[in-house]
Amino acid sequence: MIALGCDHGGYELMQEVKAFLDKKGWEYKDFGTDSTASTDYPIYAKRVGKAIQSGECEKGILICGTGIGISITANKMKGIRCALCHDVFSAEATRLHNDTQIVAMGGRVVGAGLALKIVETFLTTPFSNDERHIRRINQMESEE
Hints:
There is one protein chain. The protein is an alpha/beta fold. It has a single domain (2-141), classed as Sugar-phosphate isomerase, RpiB/LacA/LacB (Ribose 5-phosphate Isomerase B, Chain: A, 3-Layer(aba) Sandwich), CATH 3.40.1400. Helix content is 49%, strand content 15%. It has a five-stranded parallel β-sheet, with helices on both faces. Helix 4 (88-98) links the parallel strand 4 and strand 5. It is globular, with a radius of gyration of 14 Å. It starts with a strand and ends with a helix. The mean pLDDT is 97.
């Protein structure tokens, strides 16, 4: 299950992502928002992060205007690794190397075509399980 969350700045792009996930037959849970009315991105980052922490969802997608604030918020949560990605290479690398559970994007930064390639890459790339990457993840998590 994929957890989705966005604020008003990411709402329109999230609609594109949801249509793409529907087309692919991938299950998701939408944690909001439900319009372009101004709202606070930390609300949605926390909802998605909690769904990952609890095991309700395996991966997540967060979108705000730039992707910055929503990714910072998610990364404050224990055990969450969220990567801000505006290119396909980063989406692949963060899964292979960092075993990130959440990808964040900026609705005002990346267009729909690229965003969908980022999403697909993020969702289909497995973690490498290389010892060096496991070691580095453990080092990151030791600071929580």
